[in-house]
């Protein structure tokens, strides 16, 4: 009725009745486009049709059919022009695309942002899912996704087994209780598990991974001497870093989309050749944009300008744009592992007879396959390596390294609380002098840009009593519940020197198998470490002095090789990533060790996101494993979140990131 009253001012009532009876819209006397006074963000994301909506529908469809192509892969295909974004009519049905310009004018294509980004596409998918009342998204196979990312990063497959064990320990649910219909970050969470595993294995504190790499490199030199090229070489973290960084530069020389994603600067000539290659590819596919070029005179003008530029290039450089583009151009096919596939394609091109024409030279160390290196000793599986060395008269000694002590506990980083201004009236002083104004500005106390607080917050007596009573009530309900069957971990006793030692007091090296890291069903006959020092504390000093004197008397044996590994302890820097400013993120980034910062940015660029999103997913994993799980001995039966802890800051942090698990 409101629309009828407003339209009565523009046309007679009889003509308005004709329009009301015209359900098919066959009347073409005039167009009455609806006008809205206010268009909200949700309405604009839904009702304003543009090419992003087609990508949104495609992204939802790929998720519903559980395809291997994830949202990050879709964005990369768009950026690499495998899915063209220049001609929208190619995606529409033939009868709809025939309308051409009139259709694009009605869709108001120029009134919306057409630049496709990860954040924009996720927001639009969330709005579309809410609009169509989509119940839930299909969770992809995280194990196969982790396998693909490990292959892309040229890491050994043994890391996949370690990552899969972390995934199976407490599988993520991707339930976000904070927003409505958010598209989960499947790729970022999987990459966060890989980053967390590398952090446990190598420390990533600028010192531990360097010591581990130096010891592994020395063992590799000895292995090459005794075993030749067939020797099982160890994985060296620093050499792998050099390989990945050099691979970025080589692939970026032939693919500008790859260079933009990893932030590698290239020559202007390479960028021009990339643009020309895309233009020639579109011409070969018949995408000449005739529906956008206008009249025949404009087409002739475009052809004349093209001919003039081609003539100038031919006279000045001696070759046309097509010849210049095809001289050192490699056509890459769409791939789910671009860095791995593109680099192998470049190596294949160099190995051919016509590869001598290429301007780039591949160093010999870039032909090393780091994914074939041995990673087992770094996860405490040293049996095969020790047996191989013993066959050649060598001994292996494994030493665990802890995190460096220079890393201080800076606390939990927090965003600044927004202080809302009051309703006071402010008046400008137009007669103030410049010197007085500057001095007043200097006297004002500036708020800190970013703040760290120690996790020393505690609860009040009343609230602490309340949560303690709730925890006691919860434990009592679990005891009285007949369906709640929780068995305690069996305890074994080891007999050593007529003394019984509880198995729980031994380390993971003694209580877990090396092959599967599953707890042993029966205790070991003998421990793997010398426990006499623990059993005889009064004689420990005398024994240590005797061992030291023996070491000083006997020269060190050159046949003993030292391998340094991580003790699976890592540094933690936790806090709240939401609502912190860009300047705060820059300051937080400077606190990261250089090796971790490099790996964080490399992994984030691999899946096409910013490092802040990946670090937030890493925080979710670390907070769950380090602060939320109370009893690891019964993790097979249940995982209990800490409810009765008195650490207020840690509990608040755990509860916040628990909502994102």
TrEMBL record:
Listed GO MF terms: RNA polymerase I core promoter sequence-specific DNA binding; zinc ion binding
Protein name: TATA box-binding protein-associated factor RNA polymerase I subunit B, isoform B
Region entry Disordered, spans: 1-29
PANTHER family registered for this protein in UniProt: TATA BOX-BINDING PROTEIN-ASSOCIATED FACTOR RNA POLYMERASE I SUBUNIT B
Biased composition (Basic residues): 1-18
Family: Belongs to the RRN7/TAF1B family.
Entries under InterPro entries matching the protein: Rrn7_cyclin_C, TAF1B/Rrn7
Keywords: DNA-binding, Membrane, Metal-binding, Nucleus, Transcription, Transcription regulation, Transmembrane, Transmembrane helix, Zinc, Zinc-finger
CC per GO annotation: RNA polymerase I core factor complex
Residue ranges annotated for the Rrn7/TAF1B C-terminal cyclin domain, each copy included: 131-256
Pfam families in the record: Rrn7_cyclin_C
Originating species: Drosophila melanogaster (Fruit fly)
Gene (name only): TAF1B
Transmembrane residue ranges: 45-65
Subcellular location: Nucleus, Nucleolus
């Amino acid at each position: 009725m409101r629309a009828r009253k407003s339209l009565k001012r523009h046309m007679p009532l009889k003509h308005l009745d004709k329009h009301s009876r015209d359900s098919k819209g066959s009347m073409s006397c005039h167009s009455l486009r609806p006008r809205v006074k206010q268009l909200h963000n949700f309405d604009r994301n839904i009702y304003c049709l543009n090419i992003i909506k087609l990508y949104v529908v495609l992204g939802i469809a790929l998720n519903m059919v559980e395809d291997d192509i994830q949202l990050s892969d879709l964005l990369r295909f768009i950026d690499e022009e495998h899915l063209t974004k220049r001609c929208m009519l190619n995606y529409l049905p033939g009868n709809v695309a025939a309308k051409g310009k009139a259709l694009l004018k009605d869709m108001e294509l120029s009134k919306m942002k057409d630049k496709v980004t990860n954040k924009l596409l996720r927001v639009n998918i969330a709005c579309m899912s809410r609009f169509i009342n989509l119940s839930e998204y299909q969770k992809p196979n995280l194990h196969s996704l982790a396998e693909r990312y490990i292959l892309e990063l040229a890491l050994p497959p043994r890391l996949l087994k370690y990552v899969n064990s972390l995934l199976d320990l407490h599988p993520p649910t991707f339930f976000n209780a904070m927003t409505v219909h958010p598209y989960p970050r499947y790729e970022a969470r999987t990459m966060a598990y890989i980053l967390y595993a590398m952090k446990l294995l190598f420390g990533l504190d600028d010192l531990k991974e360097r010591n581990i790499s130096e010891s592994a490199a020395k063992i590799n030199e000895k292995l090459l001497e005794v075993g030749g090229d067939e020797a099982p070489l160890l994985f060296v973290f620093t050499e792998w870093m050099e390989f990945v960084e050099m691979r970025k530069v080589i692939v970026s020389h032939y693919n500008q989309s790859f260079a933009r994603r990893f932030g590698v600067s290239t020559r202007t000539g390479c960028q021009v050749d990339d643009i020309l290659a895309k233009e020639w590819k579109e011409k070969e596919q018949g995408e000449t944009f005739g529906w956008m070029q206008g009249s025949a005179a404009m087409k002739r003008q475009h052809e004349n300008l093209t001919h003039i530029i081609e003539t100038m290039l031919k006279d000045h450089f001696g070759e046309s744009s097509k010849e210049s583009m095809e001289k050192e151009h490699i056509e890459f096919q769409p791939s789910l592992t671009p860095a791995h596939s593109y680099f192998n394609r470049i190596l294949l091109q160099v190995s051919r007879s016509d590869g001598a024409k290429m301007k780039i030279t591949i160093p010999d160390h870039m032909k090393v396959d780091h994914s074939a290196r041995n990673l087992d000793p770094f996860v405490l599986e040293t049996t095969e390596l020790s047996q191989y060395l013993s066959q050649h008269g060598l001994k292996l000694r494994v030493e665990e390294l802890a995190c460096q002590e220079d890393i201080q506990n800076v606390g939990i980083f927090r965003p600044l609380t927004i202080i809302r201004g009051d309703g006071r009236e402010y008046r400008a002083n137009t007669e103030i002098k410049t010197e007085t104004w500057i001095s007043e500005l200097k006297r004002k106390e500036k708020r800190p840009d970013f703040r760290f607080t120690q996790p020393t917050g505690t609860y009040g007596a009343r609230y602490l009593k309340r949560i303690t009573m709730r925890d006691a009530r919860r434990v009592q309900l679990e005891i009285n519940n007949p369906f709640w069957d929780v068995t305690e971990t069996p305890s074994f006793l080891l007999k050593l020197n007529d003394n019984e030692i509880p198995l729980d007091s031994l380390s993971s090296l003694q209580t877990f198998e090396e092959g599967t890291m599953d707890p042993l069903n029966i205790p070991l006959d003998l421990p793997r470490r010398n426990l006499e020092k623990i059993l005889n504390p009064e004689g420990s000093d005398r024994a240590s002095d005797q061992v030291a004197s023996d070491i000083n008397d006997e020269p060190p044996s050159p046949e003993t090789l030292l391998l340094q590994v991580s003790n699976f302890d890592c540094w933690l820097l936790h806090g709240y990533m939401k609502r912190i400013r860009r300047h705060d993120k820059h300051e937080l980034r400077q606190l990261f060790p250089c090796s971790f910062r490099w790996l964080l940015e490399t992994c984030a660029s691999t899946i096409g996101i910013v490092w802040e999103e990946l670090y937030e997913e890493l925080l979710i994993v670390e907070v769950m494993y380090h602060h939320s799980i109370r009893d690891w001995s019964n993790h097979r039966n249940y995982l209990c979140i800490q409810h009765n802890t008195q650490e207020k800051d840690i509990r608040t942090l755990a509860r916040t990131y628990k909502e994102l698990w």
